[in-house]
Structures are given as C-alpha cells and as structure tokens.
Amino acid sequence: MNENDEIKTNSFEAWVLAARPKTLSGAAVPVMIAVALALKTTGWQDFRLIPAILCFLFAFLMQIDSNLINDYFDFVHGNDDPATRLGPKRACAEGWITPDVMRRGLIVVSALACVVGLPLIYYGGWEMVIVGAVCVLFAFLYTTFFSYRGLGDILVLVFFGIVPICFTYYVIMPDNFKVIPWSVIVISIGCGLVIDTLLCINNFRDRHNDERDGKRTLIVRLGEKRGAQLYNAVGSIGAALTMVVLLLTSRHPQIAIVCMFPFLIYVYKHSQSYIQLKEIWEGKGLNKVLGMTARDMFIYGLMTVVAVYLSTL
Q1: pTM greater than the 0.70 cutoff
Q2: Among candidate residues 77, 75, 59, the one with its CA nearest the CA of residue 23
Q3: How far apart are CA 263 and CA 261, in angstroms?
C-alpha cells in the first residue's frame, strides 16, 4: 500500500497508514531487550512467556495509540498543513480519517491497551495498574503539552527506555526474584537514549515549522548546530552505556571483549546517519535519515540481544 494511492475515507487502509506500522520497531526494541535480560537471569526453565507476550502487545498498542493521538491533536492545533509538512503524511490532515472518527478510534485503542495490560496484574501486582494508567496519560500529555515545551525527549527516555525495559523485566521474573538490578536500569537508560534519536531527527527536520508554530522542541531551543550534535550524542552515549554494562556483567573477560563487537555495527551505522544528516541538512530529504535512524535503532536492539546472549556464555 502506497501513501500516494487514493485512500478511501475512514477505510481499513486509512487506519493502517494512521497507525504507522513502521514505528512499531520503537515499541519492540525495549521489550525484546528486557526479555533477553530476563532470560539471562532466569534461563528458559523459569522464563514466563505469557507476560512477555502481553508486554509486546501492550507496547505495540501504546505506540499505535501515541501515533493516533499525535495525528489528531496536531491536526486540531493546525500543525499539520499538508502544504508545508515535511514528514510522512498524516491521516486527519490528508482527509483519510475524519477528526470525529479519529477521536473515537484513539479512545478505542487506549481502552484496548488497558484490557491487554490488565492481566499483567497477576504477574506484577496491582502496581501495574498505575504503570498502565501513567503510560496512557502521558501518551496524551506528550502531544498536547510536553512536546511543545521541549520535554518530549525526557518522555522518550522514560517511556521507551526505563518503563518498558524495567517493568517488562519485572513481570517476567519469577515471584521470588522481584528486584530490578542496576544493570537493567542503566541499559534501559541507554535504550531510551538510542530511541530518542528518532525524535531528534524528526524534530531536526521540522525545526523551522515548529519554531513558526510555537512548538519549542529541544532542537528548536538548542539551535540547529547543537541539535545535530544532540542527535549524534544520544545515540552514541546510549550504545556506550549498554556496552559498558554488558562488559561489567559478563561472566568471563574474554567473552566481555567479544560483546563489544556487535555494538560497533550500530556505532558505525549511526555515524553514517549523522554524516547524512549534515550533508542533507534541510527539508524532506531528511526523511532518508529518518529511515536510516529507524534501521539503526532496530540494529541496536538486535545487537543488544546478541551481546546479552554472549555475556551468558
């Protein structure tokens, strides 16, 4: 299905495009890292598959929910003018989905995410209700409040790093091991920083439109030169944090050195994306860097899983 094809209003094809399935890797990466870390601790004999599956589903639904919320509220605020928009097309702005139907749709997806997450109470206790409610609340607050004040990057760090990794790890672990070790917390921060590269490149591409519309993203606040440096820094620091933790927690020094090599693939790819950003610098051409960044992020997730496995040998 192509965005240039004629899309029937409120059709299934329109909803698929509005859900932005290419962004689901951002939801999958932290959960699969958490699963790898839990397996490193428990082994297959004590691994709990059902909560792992539920965490994946909840993460996917919350990502879709965030996309729909972003689509709807940016349209309502007048920030999605098709004539000036540089990023991928939006469903409400293009007329693929009418605003009232989009509003009902995002409410349904929010409710479905809550239903999917509800059984996690059995594995993690009633505090999972608070975690789920906070996730849904901040999915709305991100678009309606935080992104306009340059705080979106903090939410990415928390809700695409710390929360999904730490709490997925927590619910997967057996009842007699409900402790989140420092290594998991630090890796969750590293993951959040790597995923923030997606927000950085989005905001870097849109910096002129955002400044015009009064959207004071961190890139707008820093300026374009330091904003580009931020993109490079968060990815590099995130990968370095993850690598150092795995080096320190590996069982054998020789294996620890081997664990470094998977991350070199990500570091190389990320540096290539940064070079492309500096070469293109303006306009829709930066969508190429956006695609490269999504690829890099998924490579980071896969390489982390590989390194976690190697660290158990």
Answers
A1: yes
A2: 59
A3: 5
